[in-house]
UniProtKB/TrEMBL annotation, chain B:
Record's keyword annotation contains DNA-binding: yes
Record bears the keyword Ligase: no
Keyword annotations: DNA-binding, Transcription, Transcription regulation
PROSITE patterns: HTH_GNTR
One Gene Ontology molecular-function label: DNA binding
Sequence ranges assigned to domain HTH gntR-type in this UniProt record: 11-79
Range of residues in the leader sequence: none
Protein name: GntR family transcriptional regulator
Family matches, as InterPro entries: Tscrpt_reg_HTH_GntR, WH-like_DNA-bd_sf, WH_DNA-bd_sf
Amino acid sequence: MLLEMENIQKTYGDFTLNCSLKLQPGYITGLIGTNGAGKTTLFKSALGLITLDQGEVKIFDRPFSQLSLKDRQDMGVVLADSGFSGYLTIQDIARIMKNMYQLFDQDGFIKKCRESGLPLNKRGKELSAGMKAKVKVLAAISHEAKLLILDEPTAGLDVLAREELLDSIREYMEPGDRSILISSHISTDLEQLCDDLYLIDHGNIILHEETDVLLGSYGLLKVTEEQIQKLDKRYILRRKKEAYGYRLLTDKIGFYRESQPDIIMEKGSVDEVITMMIRGERL
Amino acid sequence: MKIIINNSSMQPLYDQITEQIKSGVMQGTLKEGENLPSVRTLAKELRISALTVKKSYDILEQEGFIVTVHGKGSFIAYASQEFMLEEKKKEVEAELESAIRKGRSCGMKDEELTDLFYLILED
Amino acid sequence: MKGLLLKDLLLLKNQQRFFLLFFLMSAGMLLADFNSVFVINYVTMIFSLFTLSSISYDEFDNGYTFLFTLPITRNQYAAEKYVFGVVTGGFAWIVVTIFAVAMNFFRGRAGAGELVGMAFLYLFISLLFLAVVVPVQLKFGAEKGRIVLICIIGAIFAAGFVMIKAAKTLQLDFLSTAAASLSPGPVRAAVPLISLAAVFGSYLISVNIMKKKQF
């Protein structure tokens, strides 16, 4: 297991993070939730930046405290609100990275920065948000890290920049010996990238499912008052009152497609699933 | 051959991929022994989860259409084409059976059914 | 630690003008025949203060959060601050001392050995200074740290002042006679030892402070 968080708990004032999460080898695992749901707290606990009230974090099957510096070099990190000092230039960052990570490909990194049109001798604070994000990701994927931990790497980027970034991440996964934990509040990004998704809300994991299953087996049923009376509700997870009757979330849309083809149905999207899981009521 | 997926279709993604590979084999656009792209590469190209691609490759392997060699990749199995044709023939047979049953159950005579069959064939 | 040193040195680039200004000022002071020892001491201390600004840079804009995801330990981080202080302060010390000795020579004055001896003494006093300011800065951060430092320095001066006043009032002359009778040898040996011990103790405190920090 690349990363394993078992029943971790951390309380900040009136917010409590309480969850478990696993990142399996070769997977891209997504963590999705609204701002304030606990994504960053989860990441900080995974990275040893904060201490936990309860529970344990294991990276490369070892407790965080037992990781050697060599192990730490096998990790690449991108954080949303933090990075290298804005007073350093990209050239500076390249030289520092080379000194910290044995496998840092300095020439490759500079080359990719040039290709992306990034000004090598401008200080970080003079770069746009998109450029800053690119530098962070490029730095993290230039030292053969086996484990990438990316906290909102696409935040603040426009559609094109996001696509480019996601493509670089996909390319990075091709060798097959790498794993990624990535968070975002933009679900479409993660839908097209991740192998499995954890949905987090108010510090709790409310759903963990393979993306494939989420997109293929989950769905929405839109029914009238009458239809819901006659409906087999075994596979209904949530319901929400609407003007026309009810909106229902199911994780076995195939069942309903076969047994009740006359009902209006929609494919599951991560956004819909999140909304229903958080706002919908249980049956 | 290029696989194109429809993200808005109700058909599960892995099913779309499996189907397209199978039809590629039948139509000859995928040759026997041809190397399929790796799971991660196809996932990158299609912009979907690698697990989804793996699922379809697993199904295809289970059904005998492809063979995976560890370290080398996945290949279209030999005699896939014949195998697929056999499968399709069986499906046609089953559908004909079902049509005949339906006809008989609403009172059509064998002669009527045969006439109808030849009429359709000529269209 | 190399990476951390490199980072702090590269950040120093941002303060080039300050460097230049300072060296010019000290050169000016030496040319104008200010007390050489004072200039050496002053410059060395100021330069070791660059450690404090490096801590500021680290703090700024949530910098620490990312910094500690890099392959470094909290021990290394603390240690590097002292090394950086010695490197920057030491560099300034060498340049100014050489210049001061040269000025002495051109002025045809004797006592170069004495000058260098005093310079060394003040080098170690700068270390002592470093030993005090680094943990304070790490614990309280840049802004609060400044206030705490001013208070501490103020307290030291006040304490010293009170002691001298008390000694005078109570006519405790024995202190000054005792001080005068101390041969320079033991004093000169004690200072380096005390400052090295202080730096080591300070390092341990800093490590403790960093270990407790949450980002």
